[in-house]
């Protein structure tokens, strides 16, 4: 077997993101757009979380899970959109090693937690529909807390294992061909093979090349939609459209906000 030598990078490592290919004149309007979207994400999810926390009539399994989903959306939206704003406003695409891994962990935790929390919400609806007479006996406060903690625990453990498998992997490059940092994009810089992540990486490559005629900026934009669209519309879908929660929001605005104006 042939020995292959390499020279790994030493700390401090600073990565450079590929980002979007936009001029500074286009960067400012894009920054304003992302800032406006991020403000709406913050406003919608914070309002949903605040109303559920304040109104004791909403301390029910479904709404508590919606509150956790809102917190998860804030995690994913903040991890990606703040990076986009820095790129568009300052043109700064460099990111330190620790910040890169922190962003990657937040991004993957968001992706995993969304699935587990939605599964918990589906379980709650299943019990409500299939066992309506026993719903309150099954979904007690203790059981609700257990289900929510289990949802977060599964997501966090999955991501912890994913990153633990790659701790200490030597890196031979700093240029990340992505808009944000992810486990796969960082491992693409590894000096040694990473077979554990090959299946995942190959799937991403296949999906990203399904439409080869699409401009590169459009492809990059599509990869970040999952961190922008759900955090933006989830407060509407699971929050404001729900009559009970909408009523509580209106009541809160009338009793606590309107009198101060």
From TrEMBL:
Pfam families cross-referenced by the UniProt entry: 7tm_4 (PF13853)
GO CC terms of this entry: membrane
PROSITE patterns per the UniProt record, alphabetical: G_PROTEIN_RECEP_F1_2
Keyword Membrane: yes
Membrane topology: Multi-pass membrane protein
Transmembrane parts of this sequence: 30-54, 66-89, 101-123, 144-165, 224-241
Main location group: membrane
Compartments, as annotated in UniProt: Membrane
Gene3D superfamilies: 1.10.1220.70, Rhodopsin 7-helix transmembrane proteins
Keywords recorded for this protein, A-Z: Membrane, Transducer, Transmembrane, Transmembrane helix
One of the record's GO molecular function terms: odorant binding
Positions of the G-protein coupled receptors family 1 profile domain: 44-261
Protein name as it appears in the record: G-protein coupled receptors family 1 profile domain-containing protein
Species of provenance: Oncorhynchus mykiss
